[in-house]
Amino acid sequence: MGKTILMVDDSASVRQMVGMTLKQAGYTVVEACDGREALQKATASRVDAVITDLNMPGMDGLSFIRQYRATPASNGVPIVFLTTESDEGLKAQAKQAGATGWMVKPFKPDQLLAVMRKVAGA
Amino acid sequence: MSELDPADVFRQEANELIETLEQALLDLEKRPDDRELVGLAFRALHTLKGSGAMFGFTAVSEFIHEFETAFDRVRKGEAAADRRLIAAALEARDHVAHLIEDPDCDPKRGEAILAALKVAVSGEAAPAATSAPNAPAAGIDATSQAQPAGAGWHVRFRLPADALTLGTNPLLLLDELRGLGPCEVVALAGEVPTLDRIEPQQCYLAWDVTLRADVAKDAVDDVFLFVRDDMELSIEPLAADAADVPGAPAALPAMAESPKPAAPAPAAEPQTAQRPAAKAAAGGTERGAGAKVERNATLRVPAERLDELMDRVGELVIAQARLSQLAETIHDASLINVAEEIERLTASLRDTTMGTRMVPIGSLFGRFRRLVHDLSEDLGKPISFVTEGEDTELDKTVIEQLADPLVHLIRNSVDHGLENPDRRAEAGKPATGTLRLSASHRGAEVAIAVSDDGAGLNAERIRRRAEEAGLLAAGQAISEGELNRMIFQPGFSTAAQVTALSGRGVGMDVVKKTIDGLRGSIDVDTLPGKGTTVTLRLPLTLAIIDGLLVRVGDDRYTIPLAAVEECLELPTGVDKDARGRSFLNLRGELVPFLKLRGLFQTEGEPDPYQKVVVVSSDSMRVGLVVDQIIGNNQTVIKQLSRLHSGLKTFSGATILGDGTVALILDVMHLVGFGQKLEERRRAETLGRAA
Fold this sequence. Notes:
By secondary structure, chain A is an alpha/beta fold.
């Protein structure tokens, strides 16, 4: 049984690309299109890792991370956020909010899998 | 949707985003101060850039990056969203749409648009703010200069306190290091607080890893990419000479404690257990006579002194159980501390003492060499006798009792198993038969196997004999294993003739009796024409066993845990039989059960919900109905006094933590008793049917 990963992005294409890559590697993928949906899905059932975009309509990535970390469901769940620029300030904010790691967009499937293996295991 | 071509999905999405961008820009023209609109436009750009790059629309993504950089000034309030800017931005938006349709179009146009846009936001170009859009994603960062690597790296790290909660898994970090090359990992447990102060979600351990692989420092560094910021981390090259000293402390001020080796395992293995004794003996010689010190000095000790020591240790285990129980009730922290300390010491003393009673089985094997030689001469069968695992150790008392059964098994193999040289030649086997005697550890048991490459058991003949002897009803279905085990029934022999050695049917039942007495079991494997293997499985020791403590009325009893198959609740309605015996339907199989209350004539009210402990012996099962199942306990076996030795139901007694005595149930006997009930039931059913 593969690990369950919650993928949060408002872009359907990114969700699809990430979803396909992860599914091929044996992970189970749950998708959400903004922070609000993600929060609901992440707290409704246990996920093994979360990948989230920061820039999203509705609830953005930072608020999602903060609110999710405030729930006990997030204990020990790694959160990787996606960012387009390697903005140190943003990284610091996200880490402050409780993110575990980050990935710079654009990324290749191999890089995504490497990061997932790093935070969630195979 | 997930089946579509990703590029199509992107194009579709991009069109929506471009539309959003356009709407936002147009609205912005009317309401230049609406921050919401600026944010909307910016977000659309941002998403376009991110997904564009991911789906190979590099030109789009590079163009938008510049677009975004320029527009960022608007977002930061450094430039006003005036008409000129909106016009330039709309032109840029058109170019984005164009780029998506035709990624290879002339870049000049894009440059011109960008230049106009830059002028519009302030006239200043802002390339300085350009952060490389194609910066490698995390984890694969290899741009920084690679350092020369030596024999490997010495890595020490301690995670930030909240790392576990925030999803960092140190095991994965260690796995990743191992992925780089062979690692020696030592956990530094010096900062682990006492139980009352420990935060369950906090990581107190630090790790000391010696990585022996020729990898770049960056590769090691990348492992810690996500946690690097707040953690203590040192990565130092492994000096070529230091490579031989695993865990050589690198004297970090923050982590000054030197790595502790893993606590020595309790002397469970008999081999290690013997070493202290040898050492003590060596020390004695040194001090006593001042003569030469012998390395492998051993000490001869009268066997009964060892037995006495084991007795004392048994008493100590019991006393310690009482102390632990007392400490629990008094609830005094310091007393509990001492009690736990004593518990640990007692356990290791027990293991060491049991170890001193262990004798290698080789001493026994030696005796059989002569036996096989003589048998070979007498029967005219050349035999090569092979022994294996002579250093397997077993409790002295067990070994003593094994001699007779093994003699019988070897005789049986040579006489019945191995064929005459002529017959072997016919079967295409070498003239010399092989008899193999081997011993090995299997968990808490020792397996001793006698195997031959002879003719194998003759299932048909066994069945015929069994039916003749009335052990088996004609045509009764029976498993192969059960049929093979028939040879251990008293008076059973399939040899066509009685020879000087075997065939009288005495012998194999002796094997069974002895092994049962040692709480062991027998397995027979046979392949017609290939040979037979008889495996005896014996517990390592007879002095202390794991038991299951149960309660019947006010009394407690211990059942050897090895015999317990399962525990369940007695279904209501099956206990009609007032004579204290009945049958239980266990997944379609009838298992007789004995109500211990009836058997022991216990008085008082039984518990409303009775439990059944299903025990087995020789693949026969019987359920024992008890009032309560209390749990596992270390059972120090005490022999019953002479007066009580005639009791068949109990094999011994033990003393519990509160000082009371619990009798140990003799499972073999009870199973036999239960099977007799089963037989009587069958007879009754047959009688009724007739």
